[in-house]
Amino acid sequence: MNISELIDVLKEKGIKIGLSEQGQLVVRGTKEALGDDLKRQLKEQKPMLIEWLSIRAQGEDSGIRVLEDRQAIYPMSYSQKRLWFIDKLQGQNAVFNLPSAFHLTGQFSIDVAKAAFQQILDRHESLRTIYFEHDGEPAQYVLPQADIPFEVNTDCIGLDWSSEQVQAVLKEDVYQPFLLEQDIKIRVTVVQLGEQEWVLQINIHHISADGMSMKVLVEEYNKLYNQIAKMGMSDLPLPKLQYLDFSQWQRESLNNDSLKPHLDYWKNTLAGIPKCHSIPLQHPRPEFQSYEAGKVTTHIEASKAQIIEGISKEHGATIFMSMLANLSLLVNRYSGDTDMVFGTPTAGRFLPALENIFGLFVNNLVLRINLDECQTYSDLLRYTKQRCLEGYSHQQVPFEVLVEELAPQRNTGYNPIFQISIAMQDLVDEALELDGVEVSTIKSDDSMGRYDLSLLITDSTDGLVVEWLYNATLFERAMVESFAEDFLHLLVTTSQSPQIKLSEIALPVNQTTLSAPQTKLEANSDDENIDSLILSLYRTMDKFPDQTALIDGDLAITYSQLVEQVESQAHLLMEKGLQSGDKVGVVFSPSTDLIVCVLAVLRLGACYVPIEPHYPQERMVFQVVDSAAKMVISDATFSWWEEETNLPPLVVYSAEHTKPADIKLPSLSAAKADQAAYVIYTSGSTGTPKGVEISQYSLAHFMLEIQAQLVALTPELPKSWVWSHSFAFDASIKSFTLLASGTSLILPDVDTMVSPSALVELLNKYEVPIFNTMPSVAPALLEELERQSVAVNLIVSGDDIGQSTWTQLKKYNEKFGVNAINAYGPTETTVNASYCLVNGLSMPAIGSATHGHQLFIVDRELNEVPVGARGEIAISGPGLAMSYLNKAQLFEERFIASDAKNNKKGQAFYLTGDMGVKQPNGLVSFLGRKDRQVKVRGFRVELDEIDNLIKSMPEVQEVHSWLREDASEQLISFVCLADIENASTVLPIIQSHIRASLPSYMHPNKLIPVDAMLRTTSGKVSPSAMWKLYRESSVLQPESLGGTEKALMEIWCELLDVNAVGVTDNFFELGGHSLLAMTLIAEIRSKFGVGIQIKSLLVSPTIAALAALIDKEQQPTTKKTEVLL
């Protein structure tokens, strides 16, 4: 039971409680009255009782006074402001309706019922209060009098209360919004079923009531109805205070210094909290929060509940604390988060004078749990207890004040500070007790989800009832059922073994999922004798010698001509001493010569190392030396080559070579698993790139797999394919494999590749049915495809696709009757290890594994996690790399051998460093990186490699590179210099060093000098904080702004109490909150005569965006609508 209910029980039994001079709890009562159960409750609730008594003592002289002018306009309370703000943001809805329904039989009087409800309305001002904006601020006004909205429905006479028609009448009322500006906040519906049978439904808006208010209503209504029915009148005394009196006292009391220590506690405790939990969702989070909800209910039998209670007692904790500790474990196991924030409601009625007042007193208490502070479950339970007790002792601060003070980054899609709530209650049925009437409560299945997840535990005589209320727009019911089952599993595990290490607590893994449709390879594709790529090319030439193999501008060559050139070039390389197994650096831009050269290397059984000709000298030299290349082939010369003493010969490519008669090429053979085909270098976290060595067998297997993928899009393999990626990017492998399989390869020039319109014209000209692109390019390409009305199936790969691009892709597909694939796979798994058909899925997925591969999700201990849980993506199968060149230790860390001690799968697999989740439909979703690796234009970039290069310079003390997660995708490096005064001299030197050492895609867009790195409370570097500081110090001067922007800048500076703001600064990140937002809207209306909605401000929270919105509204041709908030 909660504090208020416990106090009521103590009063009934004549037990008195108080505080000693030392602040200890003192209990006075007979042994019989106390009893064992009540003693247990007193012990469990002792900290909260002490706090309640302390505040009560302060409140006895609290100064709450009855306001003399009841007809004045007053500001809203903090809690009321929150609900009013949400109402304005979301528009009118029923999410904060509090309906209660009862089935009545007997001598029920409609007239008496209405009279009693009229008195309820007369007695409690909050029920006849209206809410509106006044002078830019949320305000409330109490109507002097009002008639109770009381509707009697006689259309259902003769029907059962559970019939569809009766339920439809009740639901219509349940989902009917209250208009806060004008409606009475209570309404009553009576449905007559017979002469002595009715259904009574009471519906109240949460802005005027809370759970305790409903208890007050039932208690008062029982007395009022029975007295009026008996005597025709009631003698129930009026409340001494009203909610309006409390709300004004609250505002006045929170303005003094007594709140400062509590606020300081919360600011320290909640500094650096995550903005949102990381539990994987089954549906994309909508831009604006939705409240459609579902509910899953489970039961913990009494015997198990007693064990949980016993463990709680041993640790001096309550059952609620045990539940919170286990909930944090559950969230951790599904999200990977160790730092979590939860909310729990508290009654907020600590003063005796507030106990019988109708109004919104409930407060949200924030509880932050960090598993990094604990080793065992016992540690976690003690830690959770400490967190709860600290929170209880500082709960005087309204949650709304916390939101304003902490100013978290606002998002219209989820609640600020916490999105998961937990509450515990005793089983109390607040039933009506009306003389001559038998009353039963009607339980409703209709639910509204105010949070992503809400856990409600009810303590009953036969155990614990656990209800999971979930946001149905985010989660599938089956997933929440898994949450519920795993929560029960955790409770059993931790109560049986409280000393268990947290790292040893694993959830049961249920891999039963719906199988996703996937095109499989040919039946013989598992045979070890797969044709090598070069053998496939020769077989294709034998079948289609005159078919076009390559189109390079005006040049078109057939397969027979291509093979002839490959043979000729292979002879030249043999003359130069190239043998099977050797590595060859290949430095070309995309061209026919590049294709011929690579195929010639493979023809000899050698391994090619792709190197972009525009790479800096240092990078090029490193790759050549690290790979131990026997020679380097290029269509260009490099003046510096001879100056480097450790480089192999540079062979300048010549297409005119003819094969000598005395040199015989090796015979063609099947692909070999122990023979390398290529080495692709990716960015390395240790400061140098790492060479990923791929075997001929893995390449051959991928050649079959890409064919299967394409057939999933079109009935047969495409006749043409466009080269669309960098040679040094493993997506280029697709072009070689398809060329070898009989698909003509088109090589566009550079100008075509960077122009969406020219590229689409090329696709249309050659009737290309499938095109491979990257997520960063896809939006512009899709726009151009639609503009030119060209239908193409797309393969998107190389990076995280993102929800907006996914949605745009689906719309294009539906319009033009095509489909698309989202392909996934690190370089270490040979191009692609999984793929997913886009159509039919609401949110991005990387799909299921390609044939022969397996994707599974593991935790830090390499345990496989349940469906729906976040973890690291691991991959097994024929595509796994042979090695990291010269990095054996790193290879051993990332590639887990089948016989490794920590391998629980019994087969070798690669730990990708990518985070993912297996969804209930069997498909895997990508959830970002676990380290500092990012993707820039499709290339893998280890930010540590950039940092290590910059740190190698003597002028630099510390570096932190960061990729901005917005549309700009800017790569920023914050550089702490030994002497920041020399920044103007040193930074150009650093930039030159970067240009000479790193490829262009790794060059930071900005080098920002800093005095010192800004860090979070946990010691981590905070790039977002440093970026904000940089933006504030480099804002545009007013003279460079337009008129609307200048005016807005002045308003912002005044409201936010700052000297300067930038046009792209976020209003909420600069300290704006809901109240200031309303003031800003009022100022905009006054200054510009334009009505801006709350949701418009949340979507466009910068000066630049707001100015554009205002200018658009002020255009003469635009129909303007004044929006009153």
Automatic annotation (TrEMBL):
<dbReference type="InterPro" id="IPR020845">
    <property type="entry name" value="AMP-binding_CS"/>
</dbReference>
<dbReference type="GO" id="GO:0005737">
    <property type="term" value="C:cytoplasm"/>
</dbReference>
<dbReference type="InterPro" id="IPR000873">
    <property type="entry name" value="AMP-dep_synth/lig_dom"/>
</dbReference>
<protein>
    <recommendedName>
        <fullName>Carrier domain-containing protein</fullName>
    </recommendedName>
</protein>
<dbReference type="GO" id="GO:0003824">
    <property type="term" value="F:catalytic activity"/>
</dbReference>
<dbReference type="InterPro" id="IPR029058">
    <property type="entry name" value="AB_hydrolase_fold"/>
</dbReference>
<dbReference type="InterPro" id="IPR044894">
    <property type="entry name" value="TubC_N_sf"/>
</dbReference>
<dbReference type="InterPro" id="IPR023213">
    <property type="entry name" value="CAT-like_dom_sf"/>
</dbReference>
<keyword id="KW-0597">Phosphoprotein</keyword>
<feature type="domain" description="Carrier">
    <location>
        <begin position="1039"/>
        <end position="1114"/>
    </location>
</feature>
<dbReference type="InterPro" id="IPR006162">
    <property type="entry name" value="Ppantetheine_attach_site"/>
</dbReference>
<dbReference type="InterPro" id="IPR009081">
    <property type="entry name" value="PP-bd_ACP"/>
</dbReference>
<dbReference type="GO" id="GO:0043041">
    <property type="term" value="P:amino acid activation for nonribosomal peptide biosynthetic process"/>
</dbReference>
<dbReference type="InterPro" id="IPR042099">
    <property type="entry name" value="ANL_N_sf"/>
</dbReference>
<dbReference type="Pfam" id="PF00550">
    <property type="entry name" value="PP-binding"/>
</dbReference>
<dbReference type="InterPro" id="IPR001242">
    <property type="entry name" value="Condensation_dom"/>
</dbReference>
<dbReference type="GO" id="GO:0031177">
    <property type="term" value="F:phosphopantetheine binding"/>
</dbReference>
<dbReference type="Pfam" id="PF00668">
    <property type="entry name" value="Condensation"/>
</dbReference>
<keyword id="KW-0596">Phosphopantetheine</keyword>
<dbReference type="InterPro" id="IPR045851">
    <property type="entry name" value="AMP-bd_C_sf"/>
</dbReference>
<dbReference type="GO" id="GO:0044550">
    <property type="term" value="P:secondary metabolite biosynthetic process"/>
</dbReference>
<dbReference type="InterPro" id="IPR036736">
    <property type="entry name" value="ACP-like_sf"/>
</dbReference>
<dbReference type="Pfam" id="PF00501">
    <property type="entry name" value="AMP-binding"/>
</dbReference>
